[in-house]
Automatic annotation (TrEMBL):
<feature type="active site">
    <location>
        <position position="15"/>
    </location>
</feature>
<feature type="active site">
    <location>
        <position position="142"/>
    </location>
</feature>
<dbReference type="GO" id="GO:0050515">
    <property type="term" value="F:4-(cytidine 5'-diphospho)-2-C-methyl-D-erythritol kinase activity"/>
</dbReference>
<protein>
    <recommendedName>
        <fullName>4-diphosphocytidyl-2-C-methyl-D-erythritol kinase</fullName>
        <ecNumber>2.7.1.148</ecNumber>
    </recommendedName>
</protein>
<dbReference type="InterPro" id="IPR036554">
    <property type="entry name" value="GHMP_kinase_C_sf"/>
</dbReference>
<comment type="pathway">
    <text>Isoprenoid biosynthesis; isopentenyl diphosphate biosynthesis via DXP pathway; isopentenyl diphosphate from 1-deoxy-D-xylulose 5-phosphate: step 3/6.</text>
</comment>
<dbReference type="InterPro" id="IPR013750">
    <property type="entry name" value="GHMP_kinase_C_dom"/>
</dbReference>
<feature type="binding site">
    <location>
        <begin position="100"/>
        <end position="110"/>
    </location>
    <ligand>
        <name>ATP</name>
    </ligand>
</feature>
<dbReference type="InterPro" id="IPR004424">
    <property type="entry name" value="IspE"/>
</dbReference>
<keyword id="KW-0418">Kinase</keyword>
<keyword id="KW-0414">Isoprene biosynthesis</keyword>
<comment type="similarity">
    <text>Belongs to the GHMP kinase family. IspE subfamily.</text>
</comment>
<dbReference type="InterPro" id="IPR006204">
    <property type="entry name" value="GHMP_kinase_N_dom"/>
</dbReference>
<keyword id="KW-0067">ATP-binding</keyword>
<keyword id="KW-0547">Nucleotide-binding</keyword>
<dbReference type="InterPro" id="IPR014721">
    <property type="entry name" value="Ribsml_uS5_D2-typ_fold_subgr"/>
</dbReference>
<dbReference type="InterPro" id="IPR020568">
    <property type="entry name" value="Ribosomal_Su5_D2-typ_SF"/>
</dbReference>
Amino acid sequence: MPSLPEAVTVRAAAKVNLELLVGPRDASGYHALATVFQAVSLYDDVTVRRARRCSLTVAGRDAEHVPTDESNLAWRAVIAVGEGHPEAGPVAISIAKDIPVAGGMAGGSADGAAALVAADALWGVGLSRTELHRLAAGLGADVPFSVLGGTAIGTGRGDELAPAMARGSYHWVFAFSDEGLSTPRVFAELDRLRAERGEDVSAPAQQQPEPEVSTAMMTALLSGDAEAVGQAMHNDLQEAALSLQPRLVDTLAIGQECGALGGIVSGSGPTCAFLAASHEHALDLAVALTASGVASDVRRAQGPVPGARLIHPGKEQ
Ligand code: ATP
């Protein structure tokens, strides 16, 4: 049997929701979702190393906003994998972040997913796909998708996944904001706006139709038609994110002026996601967004990319 590694590094991608439909709040306070996720090439790397005592360090983008205690999703992931496993021991976790924190791109979920896969490899646990999914869903609704990657449909709380029939590669431009948005706060704002319009925000789930992703989006993905994907892009959380950060309206307007095929707030925001027609168009869009000064940072990425994957077998030392 090959010896177990001293350290393992796993890379996990950010996500964008091409479509995000939000049903009313149920009795437990959650909203039924229907979403199309796509994993994009912005990554966090999580290294898990055998150590005398447990620790967690974070470096990179927004590192100062990430908790370094047991509330960190990567820490919780390592504990979840180690439970009942004889090989498990203390580890030093280090996270290299490139995904914005509280940016609506599932950065914390990516770290949780990466840490699950890393701890599994470090200790030779051999988790089955089903077990990995169960542990991921226990950490958070977006974690199963961060494990899976690609393009997928999420229902329930976003954690019931089915791979989407999707062709093609997509060119994305992301405009980051220097101030994050808390996901629960954005959902609460959506409820408030819906109530203001006289909509029933907390009707029993059985009396409400389940949200469903649109045929337009599924057809566009199936044919790999970026223009049609752009037109079908939609996010029910966008109005709430714009209400909490009104300057995002300007960011979206600039993307539209520069001919983005589609432009929406990503997930719960405040990152804005723009779909470009080509590599060159993405470069032009990125330059225009940067020059306008509306965003704190602008990044290009490709999608879809794989989910959490081992990038370092940790055979050194
Ligand atoms: P989502 O798109 O899944 O709604 P998000 O991208 O908007 O999430 P995250 O970056 O995942 O937001 O961070 C949300 C909060 O989670 C942070 O404010 C932080 O307190 C907490 N958190 C816990 N673990 C992590 C982690 N490893 N990285 C970043 N944030 C973390």
